[in-house]
C-alpha cells in the first residue's frame, strides 16, 4: 500500500498532473483485459486501447491525461442528469415511484420489480431510470431538448449531441427495456406511452461526451448543488448530498459495495466505459476505458480511480 | 430544511452540547412510535422512553445527552468489532468467504446464500457475521475473552460484559442462526463446530455497552485506524476506510440506501436500539433508543442522526 | 366421504343425468363465494349465478346441466388448442423453447423466465402460451382463421367466434403480456413481431364457447388423439397422453398440485370461469361458473369436478 | 414410437416376462451414463452396472428381471411410507403444515420455505418430509420401530432393516437438512427436538429394500388403499388416490412434469437409484439402477419405466 498524504494535506499541494500521468502508465497493462460492451454494434467498435481521465477542481482547474477529449457514449452516466432533472420536476414525489436501496441483483432485473409491485429499487437500475424518463416525458414539451440544454450547460460544451445511430441501435436491441416499461405500466407506475418513455431514455443514454465534459458537468454535486461555470444553483445542498449518497450505494450496478470498498467515492458508471466520481467539496473526476469487467464497469477505469484515491487519500471515508 | 454551516466552518466552532440538547428535545415525540424488539424476552423489557446520544471527538472530548451512560445490548453493532478482529486474523482471505455487497434482502435471508453457494453477501448480515465468528472461533484459544479485551480497550471501559441472560435467550430463540450455520457448513464455508460458532456470535451480540462507550470505541474508524485512548494502531488506514465503506453500504440492514440518503454517514445499527456512526477525520457518534422502525433500526435514533447531519452539515457527502 | 362405485363398475351403469343434477344443486351455495375476474371490463360483467356443466362420452352422448349452452370467454382453456396445433407444426422442437415443468409461481411470473434464459416453464403459463402463439404466428398465413377452423371442427360448432370486444380489452390491459413477449424476445425466444404474437394470443383467449362445445372439443384427448365427430386423428396417442400429463401437472395455474389431489383429472382452466377435464378412455367433462378462487380457477367449478370424481370414482388415480 | 396395445387389451394378455426382458436388454447401453450419488460415501460405492425391475400385480403375481432382489438404499422413496403413516396419525391436519404443490425448485431449497413462512411446498421435498418426520417423532413412542413394522408388513419381508452406516453417513453430511429443521422450527413448524426429527428421517431414508419388496409394498396405492398380503386396509380409497396424485405432481423432484410427460405414472424416486410407480387398479412397478440423471432420478430407471408404458400402453393418461 502506498502511503497517502496525511489528513492535513492541503489539496493545493498535490501534483495532480504527475499523479494522472502515473496512473496513465500503470493502467496500460490492464486496458486489454476487459470486454467491450457488444450488445449494440455501435459500442462494440470502440478500441480497447483508449484511456482518458479528467479531474475538474472546484476552483475551475481541469487536469487531463490520455484520450480525455475523445467523445464516447456515456450510457448510464446520463441517469444522474435525468435524476437531477426529474427531482427538479416533481421533487420528493419521485420517491413514491422509485426506491433508494441497492438492488442486489443485475441492473435490468425484473425479479424485484415483480415482488415489489412495479416500484424499482433505485433510480440507477434500468427500471428506475425508465421511471425517471417517464417523469421527463410527461413534464417537458421537448424532453430531449431539455436534456441537451441541461447537459451542455453543466459541461460548458455546446457541441454535446445524442448519437442517432447508437440510439437507433439501442432501440432495436432494447426488448428488455421495453419489457420493463410494459411491466411497470401494468403496475400503473408509468404514465406516458411506452414508446415515448423509451425515446427519452435512449436519447440520453446515447449522449456523446468526453472526460473533461463529464468531470466539469458533475461539479455541481461536489459543490453543494451549485454549477461552477454557469453559477447556477442546480439543486439545493441537501439534494446534492442525497444524489451523492445514491451514487455511492447504487451507482456502479452490482459492484457498488465493492466500488465503495476500494474507491470510496460516489460514482456513476456506464457500459460505454466511462465512470464519473465526486469528491465532495473538492472536485469531480472522470475516467474512460472501454473494456468492461464482469459487472459492466470499466475495468481499467475502476483501477484508475482506486489508484487515485490510494495516491491522494481523497475519499469520503 | 435547516441551513447547515458552510463548507468552511471549523468543527471547533460548533456548539455540540446545544445541538445534542436540541435533538434530545426534538426526538421526544418519536420515542413512542417504534417497536421494541421482542424476539427475545430480555430485549422486550427495555422501556421505549430511553434515549441517549454521545459524540466522541478525535481530540478526546466526549459530548453526551440523555441516557448516554445506560448500558444496553449492542447486538449487531458488535459485528464491526468482530469484523475488525477477523481481518486482523486472516486479512483479505476473509473476502473469499464473504462478499462486500449490499444484500437487498432482509438481514437473515437464506435465499441469496443458496443462490451464491454459501458465500454471504457481506459481513454485516447474520450469515456473514457468523462466518466472521467462525474465523474468531478458529483463531483464538478463548475467542470470547479476546473479544472482551478488544472492546474494553477500544471503549476504555473495563466494566463491559456480555449479558449471560441475553445470550442464553438468543441461543434458545436462535433456530434461524443455527440454520444459517448448518447451511453454510453444507457449502464448506464453516470450519468450527456449529455450536462453537454460535457461542462466539451470541457472546458478542450480547455485549452491554452505553452510548459513550460506543462512540469512543469507534474512534479508530474515524482516525485512520488508530485508537485514541490506547494510542494503538488497531488497523491500517486503508482498512479503516474500507470498514467505513462497508458500514455505509451494508451497515443498517435493508435500509442502508435510505440511511445513506438521509444521514450520509457510515453507521452500524443493532436491534437493541443502538446506532453508531463515523464522521471520518472528525468524530464518532452514537445514539440509543429502543423503539425500532420496520427495518429493524432505531426509529428515533435514525431521526436523531438525520437531524445531527442537517444541523451540522457533517456528512461524508 | 361418499362411497364411490367399485373399481368394477361399468361406465354404462352410471346415471350421469342424476349425478349432474345433484352436483348442480350442491354447488348453488358456492356460486356467490368466488370473485369474477375484473382485470378486463368485458369479463367483470358476467353474473356469478351462472353455472353449467357438460359431460361428453366417447360414444357420442353428451349430458348437460344448467347453463351448459351459454357462451363464455374460454380464456386460457384455449392454450390446449394452441399447444396441440403448435405441436402439429413443429413437433418436439417446441420443447427446446418451452419446458414441461410446473412453475411453482403465479401464472404470469417473470422471475423464472429471467433465471432460465427466457425459456418458459411450461406451455400453459402465459409466457409459454406466448411462445406457442409465436409458433402459430410464424407457421400459418392466417393463424387466427386456422385456430377458428381447428376449434370449430373439434367442437362441431361452426358458430364459435373470437369476441372482438374482449380481445380489444385484453390488448389494452395487456402490458404484462407485452412485457413477457419483449422479454423473451431479448433472449431470442420469439421470432415474430411482438404485436403479431399478441394478436394471435389475444384472439384465441377471446374465443367464446359453451360447456357442451368444450367437452366435445376435448374428446380427442380422451380418445387417444382421435376426434369423435370428425373422425380425424388430430394427434397420435402418445401426444394425447402427453398433453394430458401436462394438463395434470400444469393446467390449473399454481393450484395444479391441489387440483390433482382433490379432483385427479387432467384439466385446463380459464379466468372466464371455465374448466375442462379429461377422463382418459371414457369422456371429457366441462364446467363453467364465473366466480374464481384465489388461484384464478373457478371456485364452484372446482367443487363440481371434485364432487363428480367422488360420486363416480372416475379419476386417473 | 411403438404401437401400444389398444385400449381394449386385457392386462391378462400381456407377456410381462418378455417385456421386462426386452427392457433389461435395451437399458444396458444407458447404465453407464448416469452418475452415482456421491454425497455420502456409502452410496458412492454401488456399481453402476446394477439394474433390477419388478412388477407386482394386484392378483399377487410378481415379475422380476435382473438384480431385482439386491437390497439397496431406498432413500426418498421412504417418504411415501412416512407420509402414509403421518396421515394416519393426524389426518388432514398435516396439510396445515405442508402444502401439496410442486416446488419448481431443487429438492432441498430454502427459498420457498422462507417466502412461505416455513410451510414446505409438499411432503416429498426434504423440508416437507422433515415435517412428516416430526409428526412421527411426536406421535410414536418408538417411531423407528413403527416405521420398520409398517414397511415390513407392506413388503411382506421381515428382513428389511435401516442401514446404520448409511444413516450415520447421512447425519454427518446432513448440514442442509439440519438447516431446514432449524429454519422451520424458527417458524414454529417443528415440534420435536431437532435431533429427534433428523433421527427419524435418516432412519427411514436409510432403509434397505429390493425391487420386489418395493413393488409389493406399494400395492396398497394401486388397490384403493388395501394391502394385498396383509389384507389390511392401510388407508381409505380417497387417501390412496390423493397420495398417487402427490406422487405424480411431486414425486420425482424437479422432473415431475417431465416424468409425467414421458412415463405418465405416479412414482417416487430416491437418490439410491430406485423408482417405484403405481398403475392404479392394476399393479405397482419398481426399478433400480444407481446412475442418476441431472435431476437426481435414476437415469436408466426412468428410461425403463418410459419403455414399459410405451410397450404396454399402461399409464394413467
Overview of the structural elements:
- The structure is a homotetramer of 317-residue chains.
- The first copy, chain A, is an alpha+beta fold and 317 residues long.
- Chain A has a single domain, classed as Beta-lactamase, CATH 3.40.710.10.
- Chain A has 15 helices and 10 strands.
- In chain A, the strands form 3 sheets. A 5-stranded antiparallel β-sheet of chain A has the order 3-2-9-8-7, with helices on both faces.
- Chains A and C meet through helix 5 and helix 9 of A and helix 5 and helix 9 of C.
Topology of helices and strands:
The structure is a homotetramer of 317-residue chains.
Chain A: H1 16-27, E1 35-36, H2 41-44, E2 52-57, E3 62-66, E4 72-73, H3 78-90, H4 94-97, H5 111-115, H6 126-139, H7 143-155, E5 161-162, H8 164-172, H9 175-186, H10 194-205, E6 207-209, H11 211-217, H12 219-222, H13 237-250, H14 256-262, E7 267-269, E8 274-279, E9 283-288, E10 291-292, H15 299-312
Helix pairs in contact in A: 1-15, 3-6, 6-9, 6-10, 7-11, 8-10, 9-10, 13-14
- The SSE string of chain A, one letter per element, is HEHEEEHHHHHEHHHEHHHHEEEEH
- What would CATH call the architecture of chain A? 3-Layer(aba) Sandwich
**What would you report as the Rg of chain A, rounded to the nearest angstrom?**
18 Å
Going by CATH, the homologous superfamily of chain A would be DD-peptidase/beta-lactamase superfamily
Fraction in helix of chain A: 40-55%
Count of DSSP strands of chain A: 10
User: What percentage of the residues of chain A does DSSP assign to strands (E)?
Assistant: 5-15%
* CATH C-level name of chain A: Alpha Beta
Runs of chain A with pLDDT <50, length 5+? 1-8
Strand order of the largest sheet of chain A: 3-2-9-8-7
Largest interface chains and counts: A-B, 43 and 43 residues
Q: Helix segment count of chain A?
A: 15
Assembly state of the chains shown: homotetramer
Could you name the CATH topology of chain A?
A: Beta-lactamase
Q: What is the count of structural domains of chain A?
A: 1
Amino acid at each position: 500500500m502506498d502511503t497517502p498524504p496525511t489528513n492535513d494535506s492541503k489539496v493545493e499541494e498535490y501534483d495532480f498532473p504527475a499523479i494522472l500521468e502515473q496512473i496513465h502508465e500503470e493502467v496500460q497493462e490492464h486496458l486489454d483485459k476487459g470486454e467491450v460492451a457488444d450488445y449494440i454494434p455501435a459500442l462494440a467498435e470502440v478500441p480497447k486501447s483508449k484511456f482518458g481521465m479528467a479531474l475538474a477542481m472546484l476552483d475551475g482547474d481541469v487536469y487531463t491525461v490520455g484520450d480525455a477529449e475523445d467523445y464516447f457514449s456515456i450510457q448510464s452516466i446520463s441517469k444522474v442528469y435525468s435524476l437531477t432533472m426529474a427531482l427538479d420536476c416533481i421533487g420528493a414525489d419521485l420517491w413514491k415511484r422509485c426506491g433508494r436501496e441497492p438492488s442486489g441483483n443485475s441492473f435490468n432485473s425484473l425479479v424485484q420489480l415483480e415482488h415489489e409491485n412495479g416500484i424499482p429499487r433505485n433510480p440507477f437500475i434500468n427500471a428506475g431510470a425508465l421511471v425517471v424518463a417517464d417523469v421527463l416525458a410527461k413534464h417537458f414539451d421537448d424532453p430531449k431538448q431539455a436534456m441537451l440544454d441541461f447537459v451542455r450547460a453543466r459541461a460548458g460544451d455546446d457541441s454535446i449531441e445524442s448519437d442517432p445511430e447508437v440510439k437507433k441501435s439501442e432501440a432495436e436491441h432494447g426488448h428488455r427495456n421495453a419489457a420493463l416499461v410494459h411491466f411497470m405500466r401494468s403496475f400503473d407506475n408509468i404514465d406516458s406511452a411506452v414508446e415515448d418513455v423509451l425515446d427519452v431514455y435512449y436519447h440520453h443514454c446515447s449522449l456523446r461526451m468526453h472526460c473533461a465534459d463529464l468531470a466539469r458537468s458533475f461539479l455541481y454535486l461536489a459543490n453543494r448543488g451549485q454549477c461552477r461555470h454557469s453559477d447556477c444553483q442546480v439543486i439545493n445542498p441537501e439534494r446534492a448530498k442525497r444524489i451523492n449518497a445514491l451514487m455511492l450505494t447504487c451507482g456502479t450496478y452490482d459492484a457498488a459495495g465493492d466500488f465503495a470498498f476500494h474507491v470510496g467515492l460516489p460514482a456513476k458508471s456506464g457500459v460505454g466505459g466511462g465512470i464519473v466520481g465526486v469528491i465532495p467539496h473538492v472536485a469531480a473526476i472522470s475516467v474512460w476505458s472501454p473494456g468492461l469487467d464482469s459487472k459492466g464497469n470499466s475495468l481499467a477505469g475502476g483501477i484508475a480511480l482506486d489508484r487515485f484515491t490510494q495516491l491522494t487519500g481523497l475519499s469520503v471515508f
